[in-house]
């Protein structure tokens, strides 16, 4: 259902974007980068977090990790990662295929500025072997994401 919900979302909002399915799993940043022939930083990973009593999504560069201090400064509270069961419940996507497209209910989505380093990024597309190629600004526009600067990254691209 997850891949289909992403396809339905794209058909409605961005019919020019094609889902890239691969025979190999791309569930990790390193696997996705290798299979798609891009730098790990260019993989747009989506984190599912509890913010107080709300679930939010945070999309950031594949070489980044959440900076807890900056997260707390921005949101006024600590974030807590969802467990695998909660991820599927809230996003309908499996861990390794989580993306901000085709969600069963609206969630607030935030895009970290680390994505802006690239002309295109590759977020997952609802399955552990699916992704899309998209410009960061278009990604943020499609998902109505708010830009934040709360990730610590290991490279500049």
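Sequence proposed for the structure above (157 residues):
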């Amino acid at each position: 259902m997850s891949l289909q919900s992403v396809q339905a979302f794209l058909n409605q909002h961005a019919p020019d974007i094609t889902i890239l399915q691969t025979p190999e799993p791309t569930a990790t940043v390193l696997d996705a980068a290798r299979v798609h022939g891009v730098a790990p930083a260019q993989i747009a990973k989506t984190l599912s977090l509890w913010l107080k009593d709300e679930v939010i999504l945070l999309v950031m560069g594949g070489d980044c990790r959440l900076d807890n201090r900056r997260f707390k400064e921005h949101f006024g509270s600590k974030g807590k990662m969802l467990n695998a069961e909660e991820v599927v419940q809230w996003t309908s996507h499996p861990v390794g295929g989580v993306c901000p497209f085709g969600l069963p209910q609206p969630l607030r989505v935030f895009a970290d500025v680390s994505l802006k380093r690239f002309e295109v990024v590759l977020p997952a597309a609802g399955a552990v072997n699916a992704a899309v190629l998209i410009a960061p600004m278009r990604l943020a526009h499609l998902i109505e994401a708010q830009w934040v600067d709360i990730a610590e990254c290991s490279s500049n691209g």
